[in-house]
Structures are given as structure tokens and as C-alpha cells.
UniProtKB/TrEMBL annotation:
The organism's taxonomic lineage, starting at the top: Bacteria, Pseudomonadati, Thermodesulfobacteriota, Syntrophobacteria, Syntrophobacterales
Domain Transposase zinc-binding, chain residue ranges per copy: 7-98
Protein's organism: Desulforhabdus amnigena
Name of the protein in question: Transposase
Domain of life: Bacteria
Pfam families cross-referenced by the UniProt entry: Y2_Tnp, Zn_Tnp_IS91
GO molecular function, one term: transposase activity
Annotated Transposase IS801/IS1294 domain residues: 141-305
GO biological process, one term: DNA transposition
């Protein structure tokens, strides 16, 4: 079965010939990293078996966040950390999506557009949570993950939030719970989201570059009750460090055509799409994020800089219910050491040889 790296190795020369002059630096960097991943071009790690003394040379991973080969371990680590921090009580998953007419603009202005998506959608949540008609709490807690792709790799920027079902009031130091089946009115959130995004684009001096009709449309905000946070965390975890398409969805490559599997919305049936290799690579690379851009962000009492401890919030949630809420135990997967293929002994890292020839010996 073909992989993303094999597709890039085969077709990148032609892609660079066609689009090299207009390729963003981030695209070129991601493509080169994926091509080099787990080859000698990415460097070599030398391990020694603690039992038999056998030396093992292992090609290093590229570590690029857009490489589908490098993200599984990061996903597992993130999920375990979040499960340890989960709060008692009910939660919601909220999704903020922009109109189709705005997507081209955001793709051309990614750093500004993505930052505005986070800022304006999170501000909309905080604004309505403070309203006494809803919860009247000035400190909700939620985190968001930016996605930019649809099921066939088309460009579709949106943000998923996992939100605790209520908000903390700093004024009276109490927890103001939401209903179990309702968090905030999505129509009101949509209007605030749209208005704040418009103000942000005016402030950035980019308002005139946006089609006028997008301000006349309803902006889609969805809110779904998900019960305890475990369910939403397990749903989101694969997406936090995942790229637009993973290797297991690639069916085959024939001549200049890439065949991959996908499922339509509200359907469990797998379908197959065929794309020209140049178009496949273009769709993949359009989801490469600007350098240093954080695609996962934490707000309210989930922000690491918040002065309110999570244990305090958990206690206040339980006090608001009048009883202690049982929380499922979190099983942390033990770290599995690398073993020798000859005798099964534990391997110890001895030296790392970087692509530039620099040798690093671990302390």
C-alpha cells in the first residue's frame, strides 16, 4: 500500500517544477520533512542492547507536525494528560464554522484568519456565559482544536471546542451549571461570532478583501451534549495531532492518480476518490499551518495561566450538585521500552547522528 511519504518522493520534483515559485516556505519545509522521515536523511539513532551488546541503527523520524507517521505517540500522550485533568459533570462539544465564501480569504491570510477564528469564537462563548439569562458565570472552561479539512481534503476551516457544562463566578465563588442538554443558544453565538470576526477584519485592515455576502449569511455554530468529557476527548484526540489524511486511507497509486478512501457526512459507508497526484499534493499541503501557530488553545479555568486551580473548580461543581460526582479511573499506559530484535533485551540510546553530521551523546 502506498504512503504519503512515497507519494511525495515520487511526485515532488514535478510538483516543485509546476508550483515552486509560488510555494509557501512552510509547504516546502513540510514536504521535505515527510520525504526524509525515517530515512538516513533525517539522521540516525544508535542503540545498544543491555543484554547482548548488539548495536542497532534506527532512522530517525522527522518530527514535523504535518507528517502522518510521527503523530501517533503525541496523540496518546496528549489524551492521557487531558484525561487526568478532566472535570466531573456534563460537557458539550461546540463547532464554529465560517461560510464557504470566506474560506478562500482565510486560506490566503492564514495567520490572521486562524487567530481571528479562535479569538472571536472564544469571545462569543465567554460573552454569553456571563449573561445572567444563561449562566451568569464570568469564567467558563474550554479548549479548542483547529481543523482545516473536510473528508476529501477540501479546505474547510473550523474549530471544535470541548466545554465544561457551566461557568465559575469569580464574584460569588460558586459554580453556575448549565442545563444537561443545553449550554448556550447557537443563533445568538452565531451573530456574536460573525460581528466580532467582522470587527477583527476591519481592525486588521482586511475588510475590503472579503466578499460582502458573507456578512449577510448565518454563520454555523453547532452545540452537542456529550455527557462526561471522556467521550469528547477520545473523539478529538486523533484530530489534535493528525493531518488531513493518514496512510491507512490511501488505497493505491496508479500512474499519476492517487486513490483514497473517505466517508460522506452521516454515512458509515467507505467510498473511493481518485485525484491527480498534483491535486492530491496541493490539497494536502494547503492544510500546513503557519510556522509556530498553535492549533490547540485553552481558555478560562482550563488555561494554564488561570489562578483558579482545577481541583477547586471540581469541588465547586460537586458542591453545586450537593453530592460527590464519581469520576472514572484513568488508566495510564506504561511506557514500553525499545527491545532488541536479537535477544529481546532492553535497548539504550548511545548516540544520535544528525543529518548535518553533528554527533549528540545523551547525558
Amino acid at each position: 500500500m502506498a504512503t504519503i511519504s512515497e507519494i511525495f518522493r515520487t511526485f515532488s520534483p514535478e510538483y516543485v517544477d509546476r508550483f515552486g515559485d509560488s510555494m509557501p516556505q512552510e509547504h516546502r519545509k513540510a514536504m521535505n520533512a515527510i520525504i526524509d522521515c525515517r530515512t538516513e536523511a533525517a539522521g540516525i539513532a544508535v542503540y545498544e542492547c543491555q543484554e547482548c551488546g548488539e548495536l542497532h541503527r534506527v532512522n530517525r523520524s522527522c518530527g514535523n507536525r504535518h507528517c502522518p507517521t510521527c503523530q501517533n505517540h503525541k496523540t496518546s500522550q496528549w489524551l492521557q494528560r487531558q484525561m487526568q485533568r478532566q472535570l466531573p459533570g456534563h460537557h458539550f462539544m461546540m463547532t464554529f464554522t465560517v461560510p464557504e465564501g470566506l474560506r478562500r480569504f482565510i486560506r490566503s491570510n492564514q495567520r490572521v484568519g486562524y487567530s481571528a477564528l479562535f479569538t472571536t469564537s472564544s469571545d462569543a462563548i465567554k460573552k454569553l456565559a456571563r449573561d445572567k439569562k444563561h449562566m451568569g458565570g464570568d469564567l467558563p472552561g474550554f479548549f479548542g482544536v483547529l481543523h482545516t479539512w473536510g473528508r476529501t481534503q477540501e479546505y474547510h476551516p473550523h474549530i471544535h471546542y470541548v466545554v465544561a457544562g457551566g461557568a465559575l463566578s469569580i464574584r460569588d465563588r460558586t459554580w453556575h451549571p448549565s442545563r444537561i442538554d443545553f449550554y448556550l443558544p447557537v443563533r445568538a453565538l452565531s451573530k456574536i461570532f460573525r460581528a466580532k470576526f467582522k470587527d477583527a477584519m476591519i481592525k486588521a485592515g482586511l475588510f475590503e478583501h472579503i466578499p460582502a455576502e458573507v456578512w449577510l449569511q448565518d454563520w454555523n455554530v453547532n452545540c452537542q451534549a456529550v455527557g462526561e468529557s471522556q467521550a469528547s476527548l477520545k473523539y478529538l484526540a486523533p484530530y489534535v495531532f493528525k493531518v488531513a489524511i493518514s496512510n491507512h486511507r490511501i488505497v493505491k497509486v496508479e500512474e499519476q492518480t492517487v486513490f483514497f478512501r473517505y466517508r460522506k457526512t452521516h454515512s458509515n459507508r467507505w467510498r473511493t476518490m481518485a485525484l491527480d497526484a498534483m491535486e492530491f499534493m496541493r490539497r494536502f499541503l494547503q492544510h500546513v499551518l503557519p510556522t509556530g501557530f498553535m492549533k490547540v488553545r485553552y481558555y478560562g479555568f482550563l488555561n494554564p495561566n488561570c489562578k483558579v486551580e482545577l481541583d477547586t473548580v471540581s469541588t465547586l461543581i460537586e458542591l453545586s450538585r450537593g453530592f460527590e460526582i464519581s469520576r472514572p479511573e484513568v488508566e495510564i499506559e506504561p511506557w514500553k521500552p525499545i527491545t532488541c530484535s536479537k535477544c529481546g533485551g532492553t535497548l539504550k540510546l548511545r548516540v544520535i547522528i544528525l543529518p548535518c553530521g553533528t554527533v549528540i551523546k545523551p547525558g
